[in-house]
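# step 3/5: fold
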Amino acid sequence: MPGCVSSTRMAALSSASREPRFDPRPMIALGMADSVATRAPRPTATAIFARVAKENPRVLTVRQLNGFARKKLEAWGTVWVEGELSDVNRGATGHFHFTLCDPRAEARIRCIMFRNEVSQSRARLQNGELVRLRATFSLYEPRGAFQLVASLALPVGEGDRRERVERLKKKLHAEGLLAPERKRPLPKYPRAIGVVTSRQGAALHDVIRVARGRAPVRIVVAHCQVQGADAPRSIVRALRAIGRVPGLEVVILTRGGGASADLTAFDDETVARAVADCPLPVVSGVGHEVDASVVDLVADVRAATPSNAAEMVVPDRQALSRELASRTRQLEQAFDAAMHRRRLAFERLGGRIADPSRALERVAHRLHAARASLERSVEARIARGRHLNGQLQHRLHRQDPRAALGRDRARFEGLVTRLRRALPPSLEARRRRLAELDARARRTLGPTLA
């Protein structure tokens, strides 16, 4: 690719459709006549002055001329140009001034890049760097110096690298690694976080400072290289190691900002797959906002800077306290409002209900009457039972076998007594009778028996 604007682009830029119309008034102001199709005799100075005095042309100041030239140059629009940086100087305002040289020819042009544009550029603005600039033509009016105003600086070869990155993005997208549904949510109140970054980088200090300022949290650091040829392998080892640390809840993969060439490790396929395979949610905090790296797309959450990553992961203790106080006030207000509504409802119901003391008196009176009636009924039943029991006892006494036996025994004893009284005389009489009969028999039968 040529060092300056390509011939195709220059042809497009110099086409008739974009070429500004020529204004002859400055030429007239400098004493030059309009060009004519046919050659005429060269006028004398007197004739020229007479013509100028007659036409009374508009005379421009140098400032007006430079402003007119600047507007015409800026109307050309945007161009892309490649070259080597030299005389790089950063001003006190943060703007960069430098010279862009053609390494193949003796050609150079002064350039300026404003501070806001510098932060979004991927190339290092250092002497000797080969860069590709997106710029517009301009003129520095105080000195009438022709210059380019650069809006973006890319390293030479950035196009090839971006093409490789785009192919990798399409490949990972086809595998589903960039799908939103696979993104894991971050824990709301983590107690331990992991940080994968360089111990010497400012990113680690930013993460620790922001995290410690927001809430007490345990921070485990896995050191790795974040730029250079060995950076991808180092990042993969650190991610695998920190994924095995017990108790961690989320991982921050971060580094500070830099040129595009310094961030190639975060467009590496092995690093992207290590982020996808990490068992913990991963927050990518690469301090470069111009474009999203492959790691930014694969990570569960993308942060703009290391500090922003810490803010996303660690909750703000003061904000939580304020939220808790606000929720407490809302709860108290809701409780008071609910109690007020219940009180009003009870009061309305109370107006519909009669005095309960009167109802209780009526119930007590009915209860007393029922108790007295029950007592009378019970006493009557007891009296009837006692009377019936007496009758039954009397009948039972009358029909008691022991009483009958007593009576029979008394009668028997009376009979025995009478028998005893009547029996002895009768026996004696019978005994005497028998003796007489025996004697008589002996007398009568005696000789026979002998």
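# step 4/5: annotate
DSSP finds 14 helices and ten strands in the chain.
# step 5/5: archive (pending)
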